[in-house]
Amino acid sequence: MPYGKLVRIGLDVAIIPAIDPTATGLADLLDNVVDCQGVGQGVANALGVGNAAFWKSVCLAGLAAPPTSSTTSFVAADSALDFHINGTARASDSDGDYKLDKLSFGEWAGMLSYDGHAAPLAQPATFDGERL
Question: Strand locations in the chain, DSSP E?
Answer without folding.
Answer: 81-92, 102-114, 117-120, 126-130
